Amino acid sequence: MSILVIGSFMMDFVARTSRVPKRGETVIGNHFARYPGGKGANQAVAAARLGGDVTMVGTVGNDSFGNEMIAILEQEGICTKYISKSKTAATGAGLITIDENGDNQIIVVPGANLEFSPKNIKTLEELIRAADLLILQLEINISTVETCVEYAKSAQVPILLNPAPAQSLSIDLLKKITLLTPNETEAELLTGISTEDITGAEMAVARLLDQGVSQVVMTLGEKGVIIGNRSEIRHLSGYGVQSVDTVAAGDAFNGALAVALIHGKSLEAAVQFAQAAGALATTKSGAIPSLPTLEAVSSFLDLQ
């Protein structure tokens, strides 16, 4: 059962500080580190560590960071033969500030990720058709995402779209998505409905279902998730952990969700498995370094 991830690569530069600076203000940080990441790469590694058979597609720069990203994925057992290198753009970068509560603010500089175009997808039609599940995010060109969706939809390949970073999406695109996994901010942008409380979040999920999405899983951080399909909309509580760094927690969730679904778990059971992976990711620093193994997730669930 194969998972195809088409998406982004980012080298993350992470600064820790007691609080995020206000406009025009300089604050003193207490730690700096560099971590490999990017939503696409994160989700690919998350799925691979949890037992998924994963192929990753996208573009990195022809530089040391790009080489490092490919090497890391290969170490995780991910197929990287379809990853291309840009001749002109650098590997994407993420500038991340994390406060003492573990909350983060992120600036993404896409770089080579934006050179991955619909033209590239046309050469990968058979690869998409052969997948059992396609995972997409929004750190590559939206036209490329739309082309991927068209190919997958025509081949009846299920599509998991994590609509991050937040941006508006067409109704035509949403109608073709099998499973949409927004967080509160992304769902609010897509629907115009406030998601500050559970009632509002449930209303936003209902709106997305009305727009044609087959299934929605909205992540609410420590408040849990809202799951919705044609028959029901439900709130599931989250797991309590001591959070250190929330970077890549959503990516851990999406990778885990994909693996659980492809192995035949119900949506609710898959979400609970994904919640455990996401919670564990917050207990370690960095993006890819924080992503848990199947053994870790299984042990965590045994203790709940």
From TrEMBL:
Q: Which cofactor does it need?
A: Mg(2+)
Q: What is its EC number?
A: 2.7.1.229
Reaction equations catalysed: 2-deoxy-D-ribose + ATP = 2-deoxy-D-ribose 5-phosphate + ADP + H(+)
UniProt-listed GO biological process terms? D-ribose catabolic process
Residues reported to bind K(+): D245, V247, A281, K284, G286, S290
Keyword Transferase included in the entry's annotation: yes
Q: What class of enzyme is it?
A: transferase
GO CC annotation: what is one?
A: cytosol
Important for substrate specificity, annotated site positions: M10
Please tell me where ATP binds in this chain. Answer: N183, T219, L220, G221, E222, K223, G224, G250, D251
Record's subcellular location: Cytoplasm
Q: What is the role of the protein in this entry?
A: Catalyzes the ATP-dependent phosphorylation of 2-deoxy-D-ribose to 2-deoxy-D-ribose 5-phosphate (dRib-5P), allowing the use of deoxyribose as the sole carbon source.
Could you tell me what this protein is called? Deoxyribokinase
